[in-house]
Amino acid sequence: MVDADLLRIVFRVHGVTFVMPVTDLLAIRGVGEDLLTTQGQSCESFLLGSLTYRETDTRLYDLAALFELEDRSLCEEGPLLVFASSDSPWAVRVDQVDGVV
Hints:
With 101 residues, this protein is mainly beta. Helices cover 4% and strands 45% of the residues. The longest helix is centred in the middle third of the chain and has 4 residues, at 63-66. It starts with 7 loop residues before the first strand and ends with a strand. The mean pLDDT is 82.
């Protein structure tokens, strides 16, 4: 049996590969599954908006802006990854999920 603590999810945003522990991953949401409430002016400059995941307000962050990646595409149609944190879940939209390693 594989130990989940050793597994990582691999995904891409604007051609850059990211790796996160799979134990922190709550869900991979397909395109069009979530209603996004866009964020107006926010003190959190990387916050795109919020969505409801399992009756919990979940913030959607822009990894491309956070890491100052080239703005080739806005990644508006990719899947959402929802991760756990100590406060509440948070999410990012990605171009593609490559798999689990």
